[in-house]
Specification:
This protein is of the alpha+beta class and 108 residues long. The chain has four helices and three strands.
Length: 108
């Protein structure tokens, strides 16, 4: 798998489509109510499954302060885990929060 080549919704969608068996209408990035978090949700066997959650402001809106190089690595590894969880429900996907020190421990 390759690194996501940018931040923003379209880049994330393109990455998931290219690196998984999911089709465009099988998954969605949904923003949680009154939160800056977004979840990657898929439809499987007539159920909605949340694969993981991440900071909408940081990884889709791309609000500063940010370090694009570090963030691209983190979101790539996060999406890879989500894709693996789609195929193997036992995979654990930690939330990818807006705090670099927090996600750095999991995704670096």
């Amino acid at each position: 798998m390759e690194t996501v080549n940018g931040l923003g919704q379209q880049y994330l969608i393109d990455y998931v489509l290219k690196n998984s068996g999911l089709k465009k209408n099988q998954f969605v990035f949904a923003v949680q109510d009154r939160s800056s978090y977004c979840s990657l949700i898929v439809a499987k066997n007539n159920e909605l499954i949340v694969l993981g959650s991440f900071s909408f402001e940081k990884f889709i809106l791309n609000k500063p302060p940010h370090d694009p190089g570090r963030e691209l690595i983190a979101i790539t590894r996060f999406l890879d885990l989500c894709i693996n969880k789609f195929h193997d429900p036992s995979v654990v996907v930690p939330d990818l929060e807006g705090n670099s020190d927090f996600w750095n421990d999991y995704y670096k």
